[in-house]
Amino acid sequence: MNPRITKLREKSLQAVPSLSPERALILTEVYRSPGFANLSAPRQRSAALKAFLSRKSLYLEEDELIVGERGPAPKATPTYPEINIHSLEDLKILDSRPKIPFRVSPETFQIFQEVLIPFWKGRSQRERLFATMAPEWIAAYESGIFTEFMEQRAPGHTVLDDKIYRSGLREFQRRIRERIEGLDPLTDTEAYRKREELTAMEESAEAVILFANRYADFLEGEADRCPRQERKEELREMARICRKVPAEAPETFHEALQAYWFIHLGVICELNPWDSFNPGRLDQHLWPFYERETREGTLTKERAQELLQAFWIRFHNQPSPPKVGITAEESNTYTDFALINLGGVKEDGSDGVNELTYLILDVIEEMRLLQPSSMIQVSKKSPDRFILRALEIIKTGFGQPSVFNTDAIIQEMLRQGKSLQDARNGGASGCVETGAFGKESYILTGYFNLTKILELTLHNGRDPRRGILLGLETGNPADFRSFEDLLEAFRRQVEHFVKIKVRGSNTIERLFAEYLPAPFLSLLISDCIEKGKDYHDGGARYNTSYIQGVGLGSVTDSLTALRHHIYQEKTLTWEEFMKALDEDFEGREPLRRRLLNETPKYGNDDEEADGILREVFKIYHDAVNGRPNTRSGVFRINLLPTTCHVYFGRVTGATPDGRKSGQPLSEGISPVQGADTKGPTGVVLSASKIDHLATGGTLLNQKFTPRLLSDREGLQGVLHLIRTYFRLDGHHIQFNVVDAATLREAQKHPENHRDLIVRVAGYSDYFVDLGEDLQNEILHRTEHQGF
Amino acid sequence: MVEAEPKGRIFNVQRFSLHDGPGIRVTLFFQGCPLRCLWCHNPEGTLIPEGTPTPEGTPLGSRPLVVPERCIGDGECLPLCPEGALSLEGGRIRLDRGLCTLCGLCFSHCPTGALRPSCRTMTLAEAMAVILKERPFFSESGGGVTFSGGEPLAQPAFLRLLLQECRQEGISTAVDTCGEVPWETFESVLPRTDLFLFDLKALDEGLHRRLTGRSNGRILANLNALVRSGVPLRIRIPLVGGANADSEALEGFVRFLSGLSRRPPVDLLLYHTLGREKYPRLGLPLPPLFTQPSPETVSAFRDTLEREGFCTTLGG
């Protein structure tokens, strides 16, 4: 890392996240301006984006190469009052909470009190959303049956393909105008709506071009003032680039990175979409620029690396917008989930790994930053060298890159009806979510607490924590004559809550389509322009809604324990079992140990437990899969938790697998923490028993001690473990490589371990930023050690 | 008369085993090593299987493994011992080894793993089921099964059956042996074994006796014969500072190895203390502490071997 990047990286690491009222203030003015209320929703949104980008303050770090901050300064994070207007109480919590705080200055506090809250209270999407939801939805939400992704953030979960590297925004505008000119209300009754949407797209593209030009002016001014000749020229070159992209298509490596970054900022300034935005297959998109320029001698490998590193810092400076309440619980991190995809296959199906892939891996290793996150796509055609190089980085223990199965991802998409070409150009984003990059709106709607639903089933539909009837009255378990009766009751409860969740989501989709369209994001995603439809309204080529199941391992082991001890071995009665659960195993430690240690567990290739895993998977899959959403697409499942398994665990009482009340649930499709006693091969064999190809992504977490990966045999062993899992259709696997002693030491002395990054669940985070529950849970996950 | 189902005494199954032959392997550890190496990290493997007839399913003849830290002190195991050998001490389990008859009756209760058998009896079908489950990893990695110990050749009948079944299933096999068995035993498994891992502890007869309790005469003869037979073979030398890693001992290795008619690969295994905690858990006195030889010593030794035409690896 050269001195320039070292300095930039250090500054980025030291910047303290704060809350900036700038965006909210500008939006308040726009929303108050005369005539604004008369605009259609899409035009309101493009007007707001244009006002913000033409007035927001510009920031330039000393010696920076790629420019553009969302806030007025690094990590000064805007709020989105049209989505959620933070209360004064929220601000106090954000400012003072020990984990993931955002500094709120007294001035900002005052602005909220005097200007923002009085205007936005009663106008935010969050208030609209909760006022629209049915009482049964509210009750399930408040009890921790499911969470709601869109209550504080806009739908997003999308990734860009290569279209901005082939065309500039001017070209997009030309196509939009062409489309507008072709509209005739005489023959197309949707013409008005389409025209409003398309006009908003054109205007929002103009807003981003204008923003880039403001940077060009700014950089020219800086160049004039700069005393160092070398930097002066560099600033002039940067100004030239900002004048050119993203209006015109980029022609150099530097232009391509800067073009993407302006587009990225446009998306995250327009709204606060989940997973921010994401360049996706970066090594594929940048390869033509890199290949040509290095061949012609206008770009050295070192310069390309420096530019990429500067690009990495751009991501790191944009924390996830401040979350509060349950949304903070389910996703408590500064990471905003941009996930760089490397490798995979090209559109023609050939191996996608190239020289730039390895260069980007070098960048990931050197930068060692939370954001952007990174992953490798491994296909059966990927060379071993590619995986081994990634393992060299993984073994340094910061959880990146994670490892994905390209062949599974492609099959998942083909099953969903996508074209082979779109599938090959896709990948995974966020944590593990499969998507057709640049062509799909795949919305995660919320986490779904499968374990809690078993708890309700065992209490005849009641939530023992809140003492209320939440679910169906499926009967007293003591009356279940067979295990199948229990499973059927569980199935009915799952279906009941899935229906409540889907009803809610299909309403919330409309709230975003009607009130908060995203014209800028829309113009980037095929086929919104062609359809004249917003991204939130089914404009994309593919439209999927996901519900993310949580606690698969916990619910499997719990059902297994019930069957094993009550119906098979008959060593326990329902009465004894329920009493033990309701009293949180108080005074019944031997029983709890028997449940923990002498009961079949998922994760050990034990068919008794894994057979139930299949049943649970099928119940959940069948309850969700194929239900229509409002965007001409359907609901599907994926299995990932972010940090939600901790929150869901907190609201779930003791479970039949021996878990005590309030403890975290299992995460993703990983076995219950500590239940996998037969090593990684057992985990891989068990995890491959669910039908990954019928999901939109599954998350498997493995923890290894550094010793395992310390020699060639260890690296080769993990390589073959990955290859085997993927041959068995596994979707994703990630590795935490850190020893328990280091984690304990970091818990005791966080001040000495600020840079310790661990894999949480589909993303990495600073260990010291994690809540204590999550820290303990990571400590507890089995450390696999090959002998 | 119906022939009894073949059974073996297996004290551990190690899956995702990466250092006992090529690829991802599953290693089955057989009880019955005749040597008593001073640095042994598998002391439960040295115990000769008891000849006592065993009631079905009870792991009789197994020395109890006692891990007091795991005990929750519920005391429900105490009455299970007919000899009164179990008691609680400070709320944790204690076993009076003098009274223990290895009957195995106490194992049935413990739900925490504080009191458990150190070895178990496996049928051929059970052992094969364990091996077959790992098969997806073998084809990907070029791995297979390793029979180790203890000493796999101490249970030759069971081993032969396993080797035969594996061959039928197309699973690659390795036998990791200390060599201290009659040559006929080697001969009986030779045609069915894909790879031998042969442990060599010391060349000087007196030193070998001091370190392992047995002469190395038969071991060296077997190794020579194995080399001549042409079967794929790796020689494994544990390097134990203070035992077999001084210059004289190392020269002994070089002299012997360079006299072999072939140059099999040599794996050097550095001494470690990971097995020490097993001793108190088995009620055995702690073995003497050794050291790891210095990196300089090890690399000089490796260089010498490499010059003599041996491929070497270094592990722990």
What does this structure look like?
The complex is a heterodimer of chains A (787) and B (316). By secondary structure, chain A is of the alpha/beta class. Chain A has a 5-stranded mixed sheet. In chain A, strand 6 (427-429) and strand 7 form a beta hairpin. In chain A, helix 1 (3-14) runs parallel beside helix 14 (301-316), helix 2 packs across helix 3 (41-55) and helix 12 runs parallel beside helix 14. Chain B contains 9 helices and 13 strands. In chain B, the strands form 3 sheets. In chain B, strands 7-1-2-8-9-10-11-12-13 form a 9-stranded mixed sheet. In chain B, helix 7 runs parallel beside helix 9 (295-307). The interface between A and B is medium-sized, with 29 and 24 residues.
Summarize the structure.
The complex is a heterodimer of chains A (787) and B (316). Chain A is an alpha/beta fold and 787 residues long.
In angstroms, what is the radius of gyration of chain B?
21 Å
Q: What CATH architecture of the largest domain in chain B would you give?
A: Alpha-Beta Barrel
Straight-line N-to-C gap of chain B: 48 Å
Strand order of the largest sheet of chain B: 7-1-2-8-9-10-11-12-13
Rg of Cα set of chain A: 26 Å
Structural class of chain B: alpha/beta
Name the CATH superfamily classification of the largest domain in chain B: Aldolase class I
Largest interface: A-B, 29 and 24 residues
β-strand number of chain B: 13
Pick out the low-confidence regions of chain B. Answer: 49-60
Oligomer: heterodimer
Give the spatial strand order of the biggest sheet of chain A.
3-4-5-14-13
CATH class of the largest domain in chain B: Alpha Beta
- Quote the average pLDDT of chain A: 95
Q: Could you report the average pLDDT of chain B, rounded to the nearest whole number?
A: 90
Number of helices of chain B: 9
Strand proportion of chain B: 15-25%
Helix tally of chain A equals 32
